[in-house]
Amino acid sequence: MTRVVAFIPDLLFGSNVLGALRAAGHDPVLVSDSDGLGRELPGAQVLIIDLTADPMARIEQVSRIPHEGVKTLGFYSHVEADVRAQAEQAGLDLVIPRSRMAREGAALVSRLLET
Length: 115
Fold this sequence. Notes:
There is one protein chain. The protein is an alpha/beta fold. The protein has helices at about 10-25, 35-40, 55-65, 80-90, 100-115, and strands spanning about 5, 25-30, 45-50, 70-75, 95.
């Protein structure tokens, strides 16, 4: 079972993501702030990051917490295409629009682990 930390402050969307991850056989946990992220990240194989609100602050929060060996998947609002470039430049492994996260999130986590 893959340990997945989902840093998604939007609890409704986060719950939907967790449900899809559980159905795919992953072991997800939802966090909504930096304290939760720091507490839950050790032992995780994948970190999902919501970049829809204040993306640079989120990227900075993640960069301050050690996460070597953890695959990162960020999602952003499709109307903010520049966020994708910023997140990729910051080193996130995969950056996708929020709509794709809703449709394919669990499958993308599985594929990310294969790389």
